[in-house]
TrEMBL record:
Keywords: Nucleotide-binding. Pfam families: Ras (PF00071). Transmembrane segments: none annotated. GO terms for molecular function: GTP binding; GTPase activity. This is Uncharacterized protein. PROSITE patterns: RAB (PS51419). It comes from the Eukaryota.
């Protein structure tokens, strides 16, 4: 299916403060089965690892842009050349959903070749949820963005998030 059996992919995690980007990195470290024992984070904001997906060896670099940083634009410029931007919001925090628009605008100018994806995190907080799945789905469908929900705490859709994006990038969906 693929012409090349080794791929190098870079994902950026973007979104408001406390939407769960660092928790996503932790969940990957804890829950994904990696090809090698290489789980030695250089920084809590950065993750390198490799995994095999549909017989392709993927070397993946996942980088978090903290939600609150004066160097936000600078960080975004560091994301030039990334393959995927994953925008995070918190399903209990409507502001975090609204602010995705701004993050998308910035990333659109900078991450020129990236595919964009959105994840709504913290779906384990059933009683505190303020954004329904259907509402967000309609919103992101209109923007033409792929969207799904996750829980870093309960390890819901963590591995799948990595793989769905790899599938999209490898197949250039
Ligand atoms: N209940 C629940 N809490 C979560 C989940 N993911 C993250 N949290 C909590 O939300 C808080 C913020 O999570 P972080 O992962 O630090 O958020 P962040 O997006 O990295 O935040 P910044 O780096 O400040 O931009 C922490 O207290 C986490 O434990 C989740 O899936 N469910
Ligand atoms: Mg963080």
């Amino acid at each position: 299916m693929y012409s090349n059996k080794t791929k190098y992919l870079k994902y950026f995690l973007l979104g408001d403060i406390a939407t769960g980007k660092s928790s996503f990195l932790t969940a990957i470290r804890e829950n994904m089965i990696l090809d090698q024992d290489q789980d030695q984070p250089i920084s809590s904001l950065l993750l390198f690892y490799q995994f095999t997906y549909e017989s392709v060896k993927v070397f993946l670099n996942v980088i978090e842009i903290p939600g609150k940083t004066k160097k936000r634009t600078l960080f975004y410029h560091g994301s030039r050349g990334c393959d995927a931007c994953i925008f995070f919001y918190d399903v209990t925090n409507p502001d975090s959903l609204k602010n995705i628009n701004h993050a998308i605008l910035l990333a659109t100018d900078i991450c020129l070749n990236a595919q964009f994806f959105v994840v709504g995190n913290k779906i384990d907080l059933i009683d505190k949820r303020l954004i329904a799945f259907e509402e967000a789905k309609k919103y992101f469908d209109e923007l033409g963005l792929q969207f799904w929900e996750i829980s870093c705490k309960d390890n819901v859709m963590i591995k799948e998030t990595i793989e769905i994006i790899a599938f999209n990038l490898l197949n250039k969906v």
